[in-house]
């Protein structure tokens, strides 16, 4: 073999970097490419070994193919080596150009610059809940749009007559006596309200009282806050009368008797439901009701604290049991408060802000949106400038020793959320900074580190362009933001594998004839390994397509595209960067060269070849980490006792994990949005868990509609068109005749008064909270207006022929829709606004009619446990079944029962999450098995690798249970994508084991030597990068960080120590040729 004399100072380029070599005889060329001969003479060259003497080739044995030249080198690699800088710049420009086009075609066209699809309306299109939801929702939208004018357009909106924002205060007691046990704690709560009500300028921003007629020369006053402190600071307190009321309500049987009589005797409603009652009892009920009314009429928070505040608390404990008056007191006391327990550790209150700030005339829908947005922005500035500092001081834990105060305000909560998201995003930046520096440490090049981070980062916009512009998938889920963490983990792993293979190649003298030969080997070696893992991971993410939820589908497809693009960029952009690094930067600076320094002569490949020729392969120093995996870890695994230890330990742990995983159950609590220690989340948790449903709480509206048919879903594809849900359908036979109206009113009365529904339907003033437009339509039909609200509320019209002739609706409805509703507490809401959904009037005809009832348990906010929602849903469904038996005859058509706050569809989504979590993860494992079978053709390698992935899945779920997690929507989504995250390491080692030569011992040594360092670096990068996510306030990212860390850690442990120990123990031989199954 001819050799060049090495310079005396020459040493291997990566004397501490290189990864242990492969078998020198191992070939990775095409089948028609013969073995590269050893002993090629090396001469100086100006660039990339261009003057190197060609290898000796037997033309009879080697021929050029479509992909490789006659020397066995890849044509693509030859092309890159000839013009690396031009190709590198072209690829950079290509990525930047697609990013620019993405900005032009997607971001600039997005509403408010937000390219994400709103997460609402996320459901299974074929489920009965979503069908009924869209049937009513789309019908409501259509008839509203078809009305000739809006209900408010052209009308005068009085100054501060509508609620524009609320400030919600939540208090938590810190003493055994509770919040109402001491003067100090009561006054501390009042301080929160005094921030506003002691400020004279608040009169210009508060919700004004339009219910009370104005006396001459007086101005409207602010509505009092909704708080129990109204009774502790009354303008007048009659202690004797309060004591008398308490004594009356204390007497056995009096509470039940008063509740049975009060609705009729005090309110004059539904007296037909009251059986014969003695005159004495009627007088007693009337006097007791009057005394209570006298006391409560002075509750206005305009006086001093009642000296005997314990009496106030005791009175509240009894009034909370009186159906007619409980709404005055039940809002501010917790669920444990009662006449037997006068301690309430929690309280709450609401301050109401009014709008518009100036009297104005209502415009059309678009004009109203613009005006409302402007006023919201103005109000936000007012709060920040005038009140926010004092609110923060009140909420400071150091301000009051006896209690903790929390607040949130609708006008500024958006800024609070943005602040939280920004802080979490900054934490995520630390993850990428670590990835960058870890790549820098392992490549020992700033240039390659920057290129590596560039290709990881730009995998997102390039994939986004393909996803949205090429594939025309318009549904871009908020879940897709997780793809940046996916590609950071997998992209860094691919970079390590490629770079480590490049380092290994310098120890193979047969590969150092020229750079084309060397890079062709690297390209083939890494291309196959990364192609297998990328294909497996892509397929695992695509398994999310089995779920009917478009948000999860969108994430799965987008993540798969991102992984594919990352693979392409590693094999193109990073490969080109390595060539440039080789020619210009490698070995020139201890810390890596940051700028082009000219082409090196001789090249690093020539130097490495010269060194190997001079001192021999065996004398070359290799890096200690690689040697550790080759000589320490591999040999440790080869000891039978060690293998038995690992298999036993992993067996025991897997058993424990299975035991814990079987305890996993669907969540039974509201799902948290933020960290449990965040003040906003604390207040939300207290509101969800510590208070009973109060009279003033907003309940979930459940609708019963007749006249609507099932929505037509033809052509609906949410991925391609997120805004299209189908076309609303109506029942042509629907007839709003007199009997239909009568039956609807009877249904309303039943929902209001039926005692069987006390726990199901919210009660207000002793009646069920029901929205029944027929009551007000009947009165309007008889009187031509709704000025006499007592007539409406007492049902005076029932003694007359009140039903409307359907032919008269065209004349009646326009005026009726703009009349003020008698059931609006503020006295400003129109019929059209109050019954926006219930009245299906399109301006010409009544397309449908609906009745609504408020749930006593569910509310429109938060995410309740599936079991809680389903219990309520089943009860409302029973009512629909019973009502439909009557109304389907008189009105024609079947009932549509649904809510419009997505509670019932989300209930079904929670069930889908659970099913999809299991199905997607198992399907991902099955696909990993198929890919490994295709790539290795070895059954036991594929089987054991698949079992390893299953063990990772079980381990992660088991630890989730140990951490106290239940199966909510976040956990279900994460479990569904476990297979996508857990396949890489075991697949890498399985592939390395399969392509190695020799017996089991030699294959394990080669697998650890070749990929141990790469897999280790990938694990370190992913685990450390996930740690900052632990500290995120947003629970999804915090849980995702924990999930990512657990999945990667278990994947690495099982792949290195369980999987390799199992192969070493079983020693199943592999055939070198032929069928290997």
UniProtKB/TrEMBL annotation:
PROSITE patterns: SSD. One of its GO terms (cellular component) is membrane. The keyword Transport does not apply. It is found in: Membrane. It holds the Pfam family Sterol-sensing. The chain crosses the membrane at residues 87-107, 406-439, 446-467, 479-499, 528-549, 555-581, 644-662, 912-934, 941-967, 973-996, 1008-1031, 1037-1059. The keyword Membrane applies. It comes from the Eukaryota. Residues 417-580, 941-1065 form the SSD domain. SUPFAM superfamilies: Multidrug efflux transporter AcrB transmembrane domain. Keywords: Glycoprotein, Membrane, Transmembrane, Transmembrane helix. It is a multi-pass membrane protein. Belongs to the dispatched family. This is SSD domain-containing protein. It comes from Cyclotella atomus. The lineage of its organism: Eukaryota, Sar, Stramenopiles, Ochrophyta, Bacillariophyta.
């Amino acid at each position: 073999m001819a050799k060049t004399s090495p310079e005396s100072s020459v040493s291997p380029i990566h004397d501490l970097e290189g990864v242990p070599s492969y078998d020198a005889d191992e070939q990775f060329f095409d089948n028609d490419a013969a073995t590269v001969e050893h002993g090629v003479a090396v001469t100086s060259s100006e660039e990339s070994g261009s003057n190197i003497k060609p290898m000796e080739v037997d033309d009879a044995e080697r021929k050029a193919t479509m992909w490789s030249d006659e020397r066995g080198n890849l044509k693509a690699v030859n092309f890159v080596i000839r013009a690396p800088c031009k190709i590198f710049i072209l690829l950079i420009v290509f990525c930047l150009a697609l990013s620019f086009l993405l900005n032009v075609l997607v971001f600039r066209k997005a509403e408010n610059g937000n390219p994400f699809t709103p997460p609402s309306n996320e459901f299974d299109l074929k489920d009965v809940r979503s069908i009924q939801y869209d049937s009513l929702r789309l019908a409501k939208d259509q008839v509203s749009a078809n009305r000739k004018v809006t209900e408010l357009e052209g009308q005068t909106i009085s100054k501060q007559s509508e609620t524009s924002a609320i400030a919600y205060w939540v208090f938590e007691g810190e003493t055994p006596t509770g919040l109402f046990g001491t003067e100090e704690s009561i006054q501390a709560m009042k301080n929160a309200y005094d921030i506003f009500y002691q400020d004279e300028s608040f009169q210009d921003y508060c919700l004004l009282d339009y219910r009370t007629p104005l006396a001459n020369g007086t101005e409207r006053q602010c509505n009092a806050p909704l708080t129990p402190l109204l009774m502790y600071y009354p303008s007048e307190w009659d202690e004797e009368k309060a004591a008398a009321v308490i004594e009356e309500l204390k007497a056995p049987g009096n509470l039940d008797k008063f509740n049975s009589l009060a609705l009729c005797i005090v309110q004059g409603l539904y007296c037909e439901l009251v059986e014969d009652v003695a005159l004495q009892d009627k007088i007693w009920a009337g006097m007791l009701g009057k005394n209570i009314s006298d006391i409560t009429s002075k509750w206005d928070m305009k006086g001093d604290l009642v000296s005997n505040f314990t009496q106030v608390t005791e009175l509240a404990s009894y009034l909370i049991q009186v159906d007619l008056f409980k709404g005055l007191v039940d809002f501010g006391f917790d669920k444990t408060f009662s006449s037997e327990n006068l301690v309430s550790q929690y309280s709450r209150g609401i301050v109401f802000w009014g709008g518009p700030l100036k009297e104005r005339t209502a415009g059309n829908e678009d004009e109203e949106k613009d005006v409302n947005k402007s006023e919201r922005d103005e109000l936000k500035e007012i709060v920040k400038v005038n009140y926010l500092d004092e609110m923060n001081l009140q909420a400071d834990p150091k301000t009051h020793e006896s209690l903790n105060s929390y607040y949130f305000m609708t006008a500024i909560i958006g800024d609070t959320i943005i602040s939280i998201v920004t802080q979490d995003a900054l934490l995520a930046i630390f993850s990428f900074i670590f990835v960058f520096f870890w790549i820098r440490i392992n490549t020992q090049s700033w240039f390659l580190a920057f290129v590596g981070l560039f290709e990881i980062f730009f995998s997102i916009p390039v994939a986004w362009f393909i996803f949205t512009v090429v594939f025309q998938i318009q549904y871009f889920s908020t879940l897709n933001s997780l793809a940046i963490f996916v590609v950071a983990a997998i992209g860094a792993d691919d970079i390590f594998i490629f770079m480590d293979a490049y380092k290994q190649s310098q120890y193979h003298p047969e590969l150092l004839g020229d750079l084309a030969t060397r890079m062709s080997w690297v390209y083939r070696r890494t291309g196959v390994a990364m192609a297998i893992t990328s294909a497996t991971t892509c397929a695992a993410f695509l398994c999310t397509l089995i779920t009917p939820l478009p948000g999860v589908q969108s994430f799965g497809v987008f993540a798969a595209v991102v992984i594919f693009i990352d693979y392409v960029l590693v094999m193109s952009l990073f490969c080109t960067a390595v060539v440039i690094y080789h020619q210009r930067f490698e070995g020139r600076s201890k810390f890596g060269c940051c700028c082009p320094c000219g082409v090196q002569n001789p090249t690093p490949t020539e130097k490495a070849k010269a060194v190997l020729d001079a001192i021999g392969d065996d004398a070359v120093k290799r890096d200690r980490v690689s040697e550790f995996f080759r000589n320490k870890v591999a040999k440790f695994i080869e000891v039978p006792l060690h293998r038995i230890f690992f298999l036993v330990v992993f067996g025991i742990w897997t058993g424990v994990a299975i035991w814990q995983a079987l305890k996993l159950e669907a969540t039974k609590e509201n799902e948290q949005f933020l960290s449990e220690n965040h003040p906003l989340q604390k207040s939300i948790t207290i509101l969800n868990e510590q208070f009973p449903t109060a009279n003033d709480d907003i309940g979930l509206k459940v609708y019963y509609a007749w006249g609507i048919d099932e929505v037509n879903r033809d052509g609906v594809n949410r991925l391609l068109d997120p805004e299209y849900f189908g076309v609303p359908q109506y029942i042509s036979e629907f007839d709003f005749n007199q009997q239909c109206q009568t039956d609807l009113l009877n249904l309303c009365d039943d929902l209001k008064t039926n005692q069987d529904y006390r726990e199901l339907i919210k009660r207000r003033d002793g009646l069920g909270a029901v929205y029944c437009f027929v009551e007000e339509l009947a009165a309007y039909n008889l009187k031509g207006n709704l000025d006499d609200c007592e007539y409406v509320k007492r049902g005076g019209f029932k003694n007359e022929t009140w039903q409307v002739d359907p032919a008269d609706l065209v004349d009646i409805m326009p005026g009726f829709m703009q009349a003020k509703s008698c059931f609006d507490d503020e006295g400003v809401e129109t019929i059209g606004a109050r019954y926006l959904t219930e009245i299906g009037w399109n301006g010409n005809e009544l397309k449908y009619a609906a009745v609504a009832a408020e749930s006593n348990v569910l509310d429109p906010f938060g995410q309740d446990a599936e079991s809680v929602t389903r219990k309520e849903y089943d009860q409302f469904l029973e009512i629909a079944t019973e009502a439909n038996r009557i109304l389907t005859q008189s009105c024609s058509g079947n009932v549509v029962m649904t809510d419009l706050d997505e509670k019932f569809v989300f209930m079904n989504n929670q069930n889908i999450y659970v099913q999809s979590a299991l199905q997607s993860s198992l399907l991902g494992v099955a696909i990993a098995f198929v890919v490994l079978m295709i790539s290795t053709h070895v059954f036991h390698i594929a089987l054991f690798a698949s079992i390893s992935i299953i063990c990772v899945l079980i381990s992660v779920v088991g630890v989730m249970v140990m951490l106290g997690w239940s199966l909510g929507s976040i956990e279900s989504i994460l479990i569904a994508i476990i297979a996508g995250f857990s396949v890489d390491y075991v697949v890498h080692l399985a592939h390395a084991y399969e392509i190695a030569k020799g017996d089991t011992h030699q294959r394990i040594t080669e697998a650890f030597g070749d990929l141990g360092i790469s897999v280790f670096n990938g694990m370190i990068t992913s685990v450390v990068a996930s740690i900052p996510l632990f500290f995120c306030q947003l629970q999804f990212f915090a849980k995702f960080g924990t999930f990512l860390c657990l999945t990667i850690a278990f994947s690495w442990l099982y792949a290195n120590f369980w999987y390799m120990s199992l192969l070493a123990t079983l020693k199943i031989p592999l055939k070198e040729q032929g069928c290997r199954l």
